[in-house]
Amino acid sequence: MSGQIIGPGSLSLNQWTTRRWSVAEAVDGCVRHDLAAVGLWREKVAEQGLAESVKLVRAAGLRVSSLCRGGFLTAGGLPGEEGRRAYARALEDNRRAIDEAAELEAACLVMVVGGLPGVKPGEPAGDGPGGFSRDLAGARDRVAEAVAELAPYAGERGVKLALEPLHPIYCPDRAVLSTLGQALELSLPHPEEQVGVVVDTFHVWWDPRLFEDISRAGRRIASYQVCDYLHPLPEDVLLGRGMMGDGVIDFGPITRAVMAAGYTGDVEVEIFNAAVWAADPDEVVATMKSRYEDVVLATR
Amino acid sequence: MSGQIIGPGSLSLNQWTTRRWSVAEAVDGCVRHDLAAVGLWREKVAEQGLAESVKLVRAAGLRVSSLCRGGFLTAGGLPGEEGRRAYARALEDNRRAIDEAAELEAACLVMVVGGLPGVKPGEPAGDGPGGFSRDLAGARDRVAEAVAELAPYAGERGVKLALEPLHPIYCPDRAVLSTLGQALELSLPHPEEQVGVVVDTFHVWWDPRLFEDISRAGRRIASYQVCDYLHPLPEDVLLGRGMMGDGVIDFGPITRAVMAAGYTGDVEVEIFNAAVWAADPDEVVATMKSRYEDVVLATR
């Protein structure tokens, strides 16, 4: 690993960073700020309409750096008929997500795989009528099975599933994939063009094996997402993602490692943060552009 | 690994679980509830007096399963004279902690190694006058140096340093040791009787390499601490530790793995939780005893 930057791809606006923007507004914003790529969310695409969204990004000449998101594959770990139905529903929803990613020619479909069966995002464990499962190993096995089920379907449509390890704080309710190494292991049984991994700085910055696993992941890296890790985290830990430079992450070494591993895709900025969402989206994009140069690429 | 339980040691009350109890009260409580061991905190020992604390635990016939805690070794990563002074102060304080552990004949001195230099526990990053450092790799190197400095001193006094990996949520401000595997690597250059590791269920339950690393750690496991991981975490994430059975952790497999690895020491219950601290300590100890049987050993 030379450490030489062989990329980078372009800066991409993940539309959740400017959450109040529709697909049309985000596309306009990217054009106005001279960005070559955008990361889209399924909810927003549904609001705009899939066909209209495709038309908008093509007319603007934008690449779709990712579609967020598929996943939530673990509910099938609940017992009996409830579990079987939940699993079937999840697979069906993921096939629709793959279809949408294909239409949008997205570089990948980001997969947030789901937490312990029955634990709903943000809700107390065990409050649901069906209770919840503490079988973490079982949930992880189920994710592997579901990925094996979905990968060929994705492959036939030219879509790459991008398995996203989430910070361990989200293990109970959002993702039993907790490290890059674990996501990488899960991807290896499948062709590189069908299953890759996401490196999101917020989720992986603390990992003592990060640089080794980035290097090992190589061309399996399907998406590089950046935002900072705020300290202390806000009460809603989902909103602890900050503008690059506002938190504790040293981006330079991570960016260089991702590029040295052979990643040439776009670099998406995805920020969940109440203050960022409340700000003028055009100002957010302007700040994002300057911080990208100063902090993420550390070229100035 | 046979999976057969070759331990377990006795249940031990970490005195922070019954936080309002002094050393004298905790010792009385252990005797009253028929416990054979207690985990002590330096602050509480200082309040009681070291000599008096030694006298109390000996008179009661209690083992001291751990002394909490040494560590906070990373401040030396700040630049210049400030950093050098902070490092020297930290080493000196840790030598005093080792002396105290020796007097108490504690089974180990638990080491919480410290976070990014200049980030204070619970305080916003960068608000201190000296700013803070984002050099995570450097902080980890500094911990390794400090452990190498302290291990022989501990060894001469018959004290074992127990390196505690903390959940990655505490990486910014409390411990740049984030996984059991990383703690184990750090321990390996030193004799087993000088440096071991802590397995605390709250901190490691999510780790995809947990069972492999417990097995690899073997006799390096110096302390097994248990409490549950609550979901969602409270606003002060430090207080997200719950009574076993109240959270998302499946204790049985972890307990069996720790015992199969050869651990024969005591099992400490260490809970930081506002509701537990507000409750009658005798009721807390009674609940702890029944949950230990039902949930941690899963023998009923």
From TrEMBL, chains A, B:
It holds the Pfam family AP_endonuc_2. Coiled coil: none annotated. SUPFAM superfamilies: Xylose isomerase-like. It comes from the Bacteria. Residues 41-280 form the Xylose isomerase-like TIM barrel domain. GO terms for molecular function: isomerase activity. Keywords: Isomerase. This is Sugar phosphate isomerase/epimerase. It comes from Nonomuraea jiangxiensis. The lineage of its organism: Bacteria, Bacillati, Actinomycetota, Actinomycetes, Streptosporangiales.
